[in-house]
Amino acid sequence: NTDMARLDVMETFHNISFPGHLHTQDSLNYAIHFPFQDTDTVIATYPKSGTTWMQEIVTFVKNGGDPHLSKTVPNWTRAPWLEQYYSPEVLGASQGHRVITTHLPYHLLANALQDSKAKVIYVTRNPKDVAVSYYYFHKMANFLPEPNSFDEFLDQFLEGKVNYGSWFDHVKGWTSQARVNFFYISYEEIWLDLQGCMERISSFLECPLVEKDLTRSVRHCSFSSMRDNTMVNYTLIPNEIMDHSKGHFMRKGKIGDWRNTFTEEQIGRFDNVYNSLMQNCPLTFLYEC
Ligand code: A3P
Question: From the CA of 115, how far away is ligand 1's center (Å)?
Fold first, then answer.
């Protein structure tokens, strides 16, 4: 129930850390040397690329379509952030089949992942929608600096002077790894075919879903269902950390919303940086549909 969940959140808040608090040097050191287990599932993303969505999808895939966990346990407890929950007790709590989330760039985890068979799912999203989503997130997340304008935020984003650094380096770092235990998927692919993507993820994680469980999972992972689920929409987080009167975490959930924010001049500025930094990158992104 919601009151219990809120209590858990507050306890976590006072004892350790919780989403919304930036990582410390200690937590970073812990993450860098993290002893991954072969049975771990790691969700790696640049912020605002569909992390919460993938946490929900993986929850359903790993639990045979059963909504119980999704309705009773917050996403940050089901799939804790490696760099924020540095207490070994928290990440060790679900020994055996842990789901771990991280926004860290690949190079920081390269050693820890080197000999591991942990399954890594890396989610990308077109960077114009990422920039806009990140901008609005800064407005409601009180632990991040309040942006003056989108124009100024865009410059910071393009220069990598935002939390978790450069989008360009993040995507290039993670996608330069050709490993059998790495699975790549984009926000746009999921958006266009949630069921098909869920089937691919269930096959990658070797957790088969029968037809009726798949149908049920797809329903629960829709934007409208997640927007109303307090275990994933971040409304359990106290207002002083995320101020829902300034915006919603589950904001729009669309492809191409950047069109409503970018000016022609900003599109040009963005494209120049993109073309110079991503010229050797084989990835293509879907910017509208
Ligand atoms: P918008 O701000 O564009 O709406 P993250 O979890 O990595 O922080 O990403 C948050 C973004 O994913 C937000 O984008 C949010 O609305 C979107 N999102 C979360 N769940 C979604 C879903 N089920 N369908 C579509 N978009 C979703």
Answer: 32
**Which amino acid would we find at residue 279?**
Q
Give me the percent of the chain exceeding a pLDDT of 90. Answer: 72
- Probe residue for ligand 1, chosen from 132, 162, 223, 233 as the CB with the greatest number of ligand atoms within 8 Å: 223
d(CA 254, CA 46): 17
| Residue tagged active-site, from 21, 23, 33, 103 | 103
Q: Is 278 helix (H, G, I), strand (E, B) or coil?
A: coil
Mutational pocket test of ligand 1: of 43, 45, 46, 48, the residue with most ligand atoms within 8 Å of the beta carbon: 48
pLDDT of residue 91: 66
Record the pTM.
0.92
Ligand 1 atom with the shortest distance to the CA of 46: 7
Active site residue 103: yes
Residues with CB under 6 A from ligand 1: 45, 47-53, 129, 133, 136, 191, 221-223, 226, 250-253, 257
* Mean pLDDT value of segment 128-156: 95
Quote the pLDDT of residue 280: 85
Q: What are the pLDDT digits (tens) for 43-84?
A: 999 999 999 999 999 999 999 999 999 999 999 888 988 887
Structure-token match 């469980």, residue found: 213
Residue nearest atom 22 in ligand 1 by C-alpha distance? 223
Q: Which residues lie below 8 Å from residue 197, measured CB to CB, with a gap of 6+?
A: 57, 185, 189, 190
Helix axes 194-204, 51-62, angle to 10 degrees: 60
Report how far Cα 144 is from the mean position of its chain's Cα atoms: 17
Q: Which pLDDT score is estimated for 33?
A: 87
